[in-house]
Amino acid sequence: MLTVLQPVAPKWAAISDAANRAYDYIVESGNNPLRVNYPSGLLTKPGANTKLSKASPLPIWGLTLAPAGASGYQLCPWRSPECEAACLGITAGRSKFSNVQQARINKTRYLMEDPLNFYCELFHELQTRARRSGPFAMRWNVLSDIPIESVCARALNLPTVNYDYTKSYLRALASLSRKNYRLTLSYSGHNLEECLDYLDRGGNVAMVFRDIPPTWDRFRVVNGDLSDARWTDPQGCIVGLKAKGNIKDSVFVMNRSRV
Predict the structure, then answer these.
(1) What is the pTM of this model?
(2) Contact 108, 63 (CB under 8 A)
(3) Strand pairing report for 253-254 and 204-209
(4) CB-based contact 74:112 (threshold 8 Å)
(5) Looking at CB atoms within 10 Å, which of 4, 187, 231, 252 has the fewest?
(6) What distance lies between CA 201 and its chain's CA centroid?
(7) Is residue 33 within 8 Å of 26, Cβ to Cβ?
(8) What's the confidence (pLDDT) of residue 93?
(9) Euclidean distance between CA atoms 242 and 211, whole angstroms
């Protein structure tokens, strides 16, 4: 079982209250944000992040916050020490540049310290995006693992498609009964039995391989490096991801089939 490490400082009850008040103010009442701290938008645009720029039937927008505790707030409560040490949000691509990391930290602190205005901006942006560009997919956690379904479930009504990866077995399990939020459970090197159970229940599991095989154990493997459109994957399959950055020798790299 994966050890749950508690977040540092986030007051989730207060953040949830602020998010729901923002939804009432922006979506239900049709108001504009009173403050706009990010005129260019809070969302990561399709093509601005390698995770989101892969082939997809819908443009994918994402919320890219500082991973784990990089901002001083723990946004990955189900992390393992190995995944935090090798996090692609810190070690890969544009993430290696300090200005990119600082921008994510600033955005995360805005969410944690002024959640009402943060969500007012975010919900207004999502509404504007739908009105101007038509159907789109939303990845709520490009690098974090915040349960948006608990923070503000109504927010899932704004995008056409909602999806995420998570290391929380319970979050993933609950998503099987949701039609508007697809969650892929991530293999951490410590949660194999949970992953197998989730696969048997029809859920999908992301696994990192040195070389992506066509099958693993009794399960089909789809190449997750070709597209991030996880809502198009067949049920009960493994999403294979090739080891990148400095994770090639990590415990969550699956090097051979389970016997």
Answers:
(1) 0.86
(2) no
(3) parallel
(4) no
(5) 4
(6) 21
(7) yes
(8) 46
(9) 6
